[in-house]
Design goal:
Radius of gyration: 25 Å
Helix content: 55-70%
Structural class: mainly alpha
CATH topology of the largest domain: Alpha-lytic protease prodomain-like
Largest sheet: 3 strands, mixed
Order of helices and strands: HHHHHHHHEEHE
Distance between the termini: 34 Å
Oligomer: single chain
Number of domains: 2
CATH architecture of the largest domain: Up-down Bundle
């Protein structure tokens, strides 16, 4: 667990340092060349800095043990932080869409296309590198996944800037040069509009965890298969499986209903079953909170 936390902390720091660099570069560069698109990219990175710092502090707090105040752990903080992160990104995207529409209706905006092209090339390559690095890490942390998503969004945003300003550069050599002032706000509109989907989806997923809803179907099927196998092998009458995922922790509750034919007779038999469940699901990259109960009376599992 310590090594996992150390890696998580390292990755979050890398994300913070990278976001600081892009934030300063994007905002200043965008202001100097009068590009709303480049400034939007920089502001996104600036917000990413604050959100990444929040993730770093949250990770430190979550991994600081305090069983008296938090007997079930602090993993609930993880989806709450993720909701805040994506809510801020959603607000930024909505604001950018409104600003871009206003610019288009006002006749567009003149931009230094050459400088914008240089920025977009550097930004696209650098964001891609950070995104790939974060995705390669074997981490079950929702915070790291959220960071990777942020960099993926920034990479797509920078790539959109690159393509758009390439088109603007080509238009400047044609009779359609009058369209170039509309390229910058149009890029903002398309990019921000596209990004609206990501925070909405991620907020919904995080809300499922806050509400302690069931995890993904693949995780449920994995445990259901293990439990069904144990039920058959030990001649157990019935079983009830309840699961929820909160952050990087899986809460699993299994109730086995026994009868006279069941092979579970002693506490040692019960512990053996617990060990089987743990071993057969160890490939899942989550911390497991496993509770396994045995009863002869169905009323205790309702």
């Amino acid at each position: 667990m310590h090594n996992s936390y150390a890696l998580e902390k390292k990755l979050l720091k890398i994300s913070v340092y990278g976001a600081v660099m892009f934030a300063v570069t994007g905002v200043i560069w965008g202001y100097l060349i009068s590009s709303q698109m480049v400034m939007f990219d920089g502001l996104y990175s600036l917000i990413s800095v604050m959100l990444s710092l929040m993730s770093l502090f949250a990770a430190q707090f979550i991994h600081k043990r305090d069983t008296k105040k938090f007997p079930f752990g602090k993993e609930m903080l993880e989806p709450i932080v993720i909701i805040i992160k994506y809510a801020v990104i959603l607000l930024l995207c909505v604001t950018a869409v409104i600003s871009a529409l206003d610019a288009i209706l006002s006749g567009g905006r003149e931009t230094n296309v050459g400088s914008a092209l240089v920025y977009s090339i550097l930004s696209t390559v650098a964001c891609w590198r950070v995104f790939v690095y974060l995705k390669k890490q074997k981490q079950g942390s929702g915070l790291i996944q959220a960071e990777a998503n942020q960099w993926r969004m920034d990479m797509v945003l920078s790539a959109a800037v690159l393509v758009g300003f390439l088109i603007a550069a080509l238009l400047s050599y044609t009779r359609f040069t009058f369209l170039t002032p509309y390229i910058d706000p149009l890029l903002v509109l398309l990019s921000a509009g596209y990004f609206l989907k990501v925070p909405v989806v991620e907020i919904f997923k995080a809300l499922k965890e806050v509400l302690e809803m069931a995890p993904d179907q693949l995780i449920q099927k994995k445990f259901k298969s293990v439990i069904d196998s144990i039920q058959t092998n030990y001649h157990i009458e019935d079983s009830i499986l309840r699961m929820s995922k909160v952050g990087s922790k899986l809460f699993i509750e299994v109730d086995f209903i026994l009868n006279d034919n069941s092979k579970v007779k002693t506490v040692a038999d019960q512990d053996l079953i617990r060990e089987e469940i743990n071993k057969q699901t160890k490939d899942l990259s989550y911390k497991k909170w496993l509770t396994v109960s045995f009863t002869n009376d169905r009323k205790w599992v309702n």
